[in-house]
Hints:
Blueprint: H1 3-20, H2 26-62
Helix pairs in contact: 1-2
Amino acid sequence: MNVFAKVNETIFEQIARLEGVDRGDPDAMELEISRAKSIRELAGAAIDNNRLVLEVAKAGTACGEAVRIPKGMLDA
């Protein structure tokens, strides 16, 4: 599974957890909100990192360099 597919899967799992939390339990709700914020932060970092890898690859190919994309970024 590539990085983007894993990020999407994790985000949708978190959405399901948020939808299923007992709204009458403030502690459970706070825990899931905190978890969602952490997932958002980590997903953003993964996306930013992969964006940087892509920009480096573009710059390399523009200069005629052979570029290797890290395993897991593009495979399904």
